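LAB NOTEBOOK - FOLDING QUEUE
OPERATOR: T.R.
BATCH SIZE: 2
PURPOSE: Compare the predicted structure-token outputs for two unrelated chains run back to back under identical settings.
PRIORITY: normal
REVIEWER: second-year student, initials M.K.

ITEM 1
FIELD SEQUENCE / FIELD STRUCTURE:
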Amino acid sequence: MSLLSMYNVIKKPLITEKAVDMKENLNQVTFATDARASKKMIKEAIEKLFNVKVKDVRTMNYKGKAKRFGRTMGKRSDWKKAIVVLADGEKLEFV
């Protein structure tokens, strides 16, 4: 992995109602990732960190919202969401 180590590619798992439903029914897990990470980097990081086989990775880029902080305007960071499809028979559990 070039500029990003595998520990910096995956930021956190996204635990939402829709993500939990996708995990239970479709064997897909959702993560917030670094915006510079490619699909190949995400796949390698998931396989090494969690010791599972990844079938497919889909990514979506999100622009940070403009927010007001008192009198000044600010902006939240841009981020990327990755939906990782695990191979048949693989399972990934979070606490």
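ITEM 2
FIELD SEQUENCE / FIELD STRUCTURE:
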Amino acid sequence: MKTLVCRCEDVTLHELEAALERGYRDIESVKRYTGFGTGWCQGKWCLALCARLVAERGGDVDKPITPRPPYHPVSLSVLAGLDDLDLPGGGPHHGEGHEPKG
């Protein structure tokens, strides 16, 4: 049976225990090895559970994990500033009721 400890990243209890067996003893190292806490919830669902499991198995949970902002795709035209030029086909809003600037 598969027991999830992080549902966003599909990290199992077995993977968490394997990280500890391989010598990853602090919560940040276990996070980096397994990937728990890096999904959409950023650890809101799994951090307490994983920290408790790491602590119960003799690991260090005194320091917090390093949070990362969730990934949200951005089109290259937005990054290049092409939306501001109002070129045909220049951005994601072109032709969708986007009013020209100027």
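REVIEWER COMMENT (ITEM 2): The two ends are 61 Å apart (CA to CA).
FOLLOW-UP: none requested
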